[in-house]
């Protein structure tokens, strides 16, 4: 009886191990994206034949496979459109692993911190952080879109967006980068200055943080480098993600720069340069 129990225990352990291995392989397959060329394929709004056809691709259309569900592929295609195609209509044998190497192929989520009832930090004269994060995000979005990027803002007006909803957008879109914009505040007025770029997941986001930090060093405010930061919007983010504190809003000198008309444009140029470096090194 003891031998029989030991035998079944070994069988159970083996089955569990095999299950874990299979699950890991499936996870890799699910997250492994590829770029393929297709022709005359229907694009549907869901993973099944019962879903409506929204578009049809032309010969030679390049699609970026973002995720898989059963026998269906969720893809990004011409002019940054999205939809589902049947996997049996796609020949993936000659596909290339989809590493985005330029901004024009990238999906980037920009997150203007705070908004609506959440004012964020205040300047010495009561100016709200939420106003300046949105101003910067819009300038960056305009710069990146001009370069061909697919850009999504977590908010594009003075409205409240919950913290968990922000990384959820990046996760859902399988974004190539997520950048959250903020302005720092010190316990005492006029005692701190500079820009800090935070990351949480070292394996996925440190390279992005370093690339962006290398370019913000050219901004009017001093760079304080990259640091680990336990912020929900980057902690709960499975995509390459950073949170940038672009100066101290309650420092008189920093705020003069932050509130200037040219600062958002300068930040946009720095972020564009940083992302260009980041994607080129993928």
Describe this structure in words.
This protein has 282 residues and is α/β, with parallel strands linked by helices. The chain is built from seven helices and 13 strands. The chain has two domains: 31-90, SH3 Domains (SH3 type barrels, Roll), CATH 2.30.30.40; 101-279, Aminopeptidase. The strands form three sheets. It has a six-stranded mixed beta sheet with strand order 9-8-10-13-11-12, with helices on both faces. Strands 6-5-4-1-7 form a five-stranded antiparallel beta sheet. Helix 2 (129-146) links the parallel strand 8 and strand 9 (150-153). Helix 2 crosses helix 7. The longest helix has 30 residues, at 2-31. The termini are far apart. InterPro entries: LytH, MurNAc-LAA_cat, N-acetylmuramoyl_amidase_3, SH3-like_bac-type.
Question: Topology, please?
Answer:
Blueprint: H1 2-31, E1 34-38, E2 42-44, E3 53-56, E4 61-69, E5 72-77, E6 81-86, E7 96-97, E8 107-112, H2 129-146, E9 150-153, H3 165-173, E10 177-184, E11 195-199, H4 202-216, E12 223-228, H5 232-235, E13 241-248, H6 252-258, H7 263-280
Parallel strand pairs: 8-9, 8-10, 10-13, 11-12
Antiparallel strand pairs: 1-4, 1-7, 2-3, 4-5, 5-6, 11-13
Helix pairs in contact: 2-7, 4-7
Index terms:
282 residues, alpha/beta, SH3 type barrels, Aminopeptidase, 2 domains, 6-stranded mixed sheet, 5-stranded antiparallel sheet, 26% strand
């Amino acid at each position: 009886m003891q031998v029989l129990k030991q035998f079944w225990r070994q069988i159970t352990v083996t089955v569990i191990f095999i299950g874990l291995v299979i699950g890991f392989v499936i996870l890799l397959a699910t997250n492994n994206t590829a770029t393929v060329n297709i022709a005359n394929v229907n694009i549907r709004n869901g993973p099944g034949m019962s879903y409506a056809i929204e578009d049809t691709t032309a010969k030679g259309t390049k699609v970026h496979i973002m995720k898989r569900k059963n026998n269906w592929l969720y893809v990004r295609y011409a002019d940054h459109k999205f939809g589902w195609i049947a996997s049996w209509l796609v020949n993936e044998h000659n596909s290339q692993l989809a590493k985005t190497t330029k901004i024009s192929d990238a999906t980037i989520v920009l997150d203007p911190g705070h908004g609506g009832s959440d004012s964020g930090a205040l300047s010495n004269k009561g100016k709200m952080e939420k106003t300046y994060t949105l101003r910067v995000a819009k300038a960056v979005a305009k710069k990146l879109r001009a370069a061909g990027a697919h850009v999504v803002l977590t908010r594009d007006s003075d409205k409240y967006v919950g913290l968990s909803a922000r990384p959820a957008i990046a996760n859902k879109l399988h974004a190539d980068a997520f950048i959250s914009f903020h302005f720092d505040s010190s316990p005492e007025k006029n005692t701190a200055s500079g820009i800090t770029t935070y990351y949480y997941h070292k394996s996925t986001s440190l390279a992005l943080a370093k690339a962006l930090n290398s370019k913000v060093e050219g901004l009017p405010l001093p760079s304080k480098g990259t640091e680990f930061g336990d912020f929900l919007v980057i902690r709960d983010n499975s995509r390459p993600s950073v949170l940038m504190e672009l100066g101290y809003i309650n420092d008189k000198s920093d705020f003069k720069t932050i509130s200037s008309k040219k600062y958002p444009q300068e930040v946009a140029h720095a972020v564009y340069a940083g992302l260009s470096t980041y994607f080129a090194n993928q």
